[in-house]
User: What shape does this take?
Amino acid sequence: MDYLKQKKQHNSHAKTKQSKHYRLIIIMMCLVLLFLLFFLLPVFHIQTIEIKNADFIAPEKLIQSAGINQNQHFLQGMGGTLSDFFNGRYKKAEQQVIRDIPQVADITISYSFPNKIVFDVKERIAIGWVKIPDGFCTIDGQGVVVEILDQEPQNLPIIEGITITNLALGKRVEVEQREYLENAMFAMSALIEADLDFGGEKLLYHIDVIEPTINNNIYLRLNIEDQELLIICDNSRELKSNFMWLKQVLNTKVIADKGSGMIDLRGKTRTFKPDTNTNGGKE
Assistant: This one.
C-alpha cells in the first residue's frame, strides 16, 4: 500500500511539474508573440510626419537631416536622457538638425500617438545682409549668421557701416562696429514685431538700407510704389509702436500723393517732410 501511495504521489508531482512546464512554454510563446506584434504591427510604425512653424525651410530638408523616415518603428532613435525617452523626444535628431541647418534656431521632435512624429521648428528670421569679401551673409535679430550667399539677397535690406571680422554659420558675427550692429538689430526686430502685430503689407519687404550712425540715430531707406522715404528713428522703447504708426500711415495712403520725403520717428511728435518745400506735415 505504501508503494502504491508513493507511486501515486510521484505521478501527481510529475504531472504538476509537467503542467508548470507547459504553462511556462505558453507564457514564453505569448511574450514572443506580443514582442513580434509590438515591432511588426503598422500601428507602432510612423505613418505621418508633421512639420510645424517652418515657413522658410523645406520640410524634406528637415526630415533628411533628422534621419527620420515613414514606416520606421516609433522607438527608433527615441531618447537621449531618461526624461527625453519618457517625453517621447528624439533628442539626437534634434541636435543633428540644429548642427546641419543654421536657419533652425531650435527644434522639438516628438512622438504623437498613435503613429505620428511632430517637428516643431523655431526658425531664424534674417533681418538684413552684410557684404563680405567673397559674397554676402544674412543675419537674424541676434546677429547670428543665417546664410552665406554668392548673390545679393532679395527682399532684405543691406546693413551699411558694418565690417565683419569673423563669421560662421549658426554663430553670432564678430564686427568692428558692435554698437552699430546692435542698433540695426534693435530697429529691425521692432519692425518685424510691428509687421506681425499689425496687418497690411509688411514693411520689411520695402526696406532697402539700414544705416546706424555714431549718434544712435538709425536710418531706414524705404521704397513703396513710387515713393522713396528716408525713415529716421532711434533705439527707444517706443520704436515698435512708431513702426505700427508708420504702417498705418502707409496702409491708408495718407502721404501717397505727397511724393518722396523724410519721416522722423524720434521724440513725441512724428513728422513727415517732403523733398519739396511746398508740403509738410505732423502727426
Q: What stands out?
A: Residues 7 and 13 are 10 Å apart (CA to CA). Helices lie at 2-40, 59-66, 82-86, 91-100, 178-197, 239-251.
